[in-house]
Amino acid sequence: MSVRRVVPNIRSSEQARSRDFYGLLGFEEVMDLGWVMTLASPEQPAEQISVVSQDASAPVHPDLSVEVDDVDAVHAAVVAAGADVVFPPRDEEWGVRRFFVRDPDGTVVNVLSHR
């Protein structure tokens, strides 16, 4: 299993305002699904943040997204370790397979792979 990228998920009810603010820091919009917008550094595209109003399909808001090469292998490992899976593995219509797990301190992590 390997990590491909890590993205903080910032809650916002006013995504345009957040986009403008993070634009001042050098970020540019690279994706907008209406409920989640991803901003990235033009020079370092893997340097990203996501601005989320509410998750489109999950009942909880993830604080952090971790893209991995094999989401099902990671799911099996966290289940075997007894971690709290708060949203089961699911194929989403926007092209990812993901699940949410709570870390020991309560942070909700969205673990995903692109299909």
TrEMBL record:
Coiled coil: none
Organism: Streptomyces tsukubensis
Domain VOC per the UniProt entry, residue ranges: 2-114
Any Pfam family: Glyoxalase
InterPro entries named in the record: Glyas_Bleomycin-R_OHBP_Dase, Glyas_Fos-R_dOase_dom, VOC_core
Protein name stated in the entry: Glyoxalase
